[in-house]
Design goal:
Radius of gyration: 21 Å
Order of helices and strands: HHHHHHHH
Helix content: over 70%
Strand content: under 5%
Structural class: mainly alpha
Distance between the termini: 32 Å
Number of helices: 8
Largest sheet: none
Number of strands: 0
């Protein structure tokens, strides 16, 4: 009985791994362009929130605690939650990692640069989330404060983090496009054959 359960568990695990590999293969093969469009839309929307927040502070002269971007006009409690910011940066990093195999050459180098900045950005948000959850602050600050925030104010800092990540993503996409033009049009028959090989 125990042996049968082990065999069933191993079989289920192997099946899950096969589906995961198949899914990632599709995302970095035939579905790569569609996945990139969705991912870029989400990253751009996040960046626009930071731009809106900067406009509220530097153009409209709003006090920083009230400058919560466009989303914060509707749901201020949501934007003030460290969980939202942490989750967004985590999902961005996961997206970058999952979609990385579809890039090559210079495009991959730019995509990897976005990953490196996102890893540090996630560390900063982990520090912030840890303080928010524990109810304590570091360095004698009055509110949760990240490492670089000791030198650069939060609005400017996270605008820069997200701006660098978006710029690196756009450079990767530009190099991907230039590379595909240099290689010429893709052969749809060869592309389907390659996808069939990945699925086996």
């Amino acid at each position: 009985m125990v042996t049968n359960l082990r065999i069933a568990a191993l079989s289920s695990w192997a099946s899950c791994r096969a589906h995961l590999t198949d899914w990632r293969g599709w995302l970095n093969g035939p579905g790569h362009t569609r996945a990139l469009v969705v991912f870029l839309a989400l990253v751009t929307a996040h960046m626009l929130e930071h731009v809106a927040q900067a406009i509220q502070v530097f153009v409209l002269g709003w006090p920083r605690p009230q400058a919560l971007g466009l989303l914060g006009l509707v749901w201020p409690w949501l934007v003030q939650s460290e969980w939202l910011h942490f989750s967004d940066v985590l999902l961005t990093l996961v997206g970058l990692l999952v979609l990385r195999p579809g890039f090559h050459g210079e495009a991959r180098r730019w995509w990897t640069a976005a990953i490196v900045v996102s890893v540090w950005h996630l560390f900063e948000h982990t520090v912030l989330l840890g303080q928010a959850v524990s109810g304590t602050t570091l360095w004698g600050a009055a509110q949760p404060t990240s490492v670089v925030q000791l030198v650069v104010p939060r609005v400017e800092l996270h605008l820069v983090y997200n701006g660098i990540v978006l710029a690196a993503i756009l450079m990767a996409l530009a190099h991907r496009q230039w590379g595909s033009r240099r290689r010429g049009p893709r052969d749809p028959v060869a592309s389907r054959a390659a996808w069939a090989t990945v699925r086996r």
